[in-house]
Amino acid sequence: MKATRVIATAVLFVGSGLAQAQQPENQMAQPSGIGRTEVLRHDLGAPGREVIQVRVDFAPGAAFGMHTHPGEEVAYVLEGSLEYQFEGKPPITLKTGDSLFIPAGTPHAARNVGSDKAAELATYLVEKGKPLVAVK
To answer: 10, 61, 102, 114: least surrounded by Cβ within 10 Å?
Structure first.
């Protein structure tokens, strides 16, 4: 019985290590209150480029700090109110149905400024194989 527990524990330990090793290279730890769900990934007609769509859910008050992407981003607010901050510029607040274009490599941050949850559909036109998010 004791040997069975030891073997089961070893299998769980090894299995969890394999699951972590198989995570995509560009997946990073999420800030508290932020959830990211990839909904589409497809090669573009231009060599070495791809489009990625991600639903980003923000709990009330949740923020994603300053970061960049290896290509352009189009953010479309699905619900709630999100504030976007760009270095050296005043913040921009968008509500449900608003969208925003973010040029490649532009440092920016986003946070939920409402009292309810918020969500955006982020569409990235990026260099294939590069990490999707680089934290500043």
So the answer is: 10
Q: pLDDT tens digit string along 80-130? A: 999 999 999 999 999 999 999 999 999 999 999 999 999 999 999 999 999
Distance in angstroms (rounded) separating the CA atoms of residues 106 and 86:
8
Q: What is the DSSP string of 74-123?
A: EEEEEESEEEEEETTS--EEEETT-EEEE-TT--EEEEE-SSS-EEEEEE
**Nearest Cα to Cα of residue 125 among 56, 45, 71, 74:** 71
User: Would you tell me how many other CB atoms lie within 10 Å of the CB of residue 87?
Assistant: 10
Say which CATH topology domain 28-135 has. Jelly Rolls (2.60.120)
- Opening angle at CA 50, ends 55 and 17, nearest 5: 65
pLDDT tens per residue across span 118-134: 999 999 999 999 999 99
| pTM recorded for the entire structure | 0.77
User: Rounded to 5 degrees, what angle do the CA atoms 31, 95, 26 make?
Assistant: 30
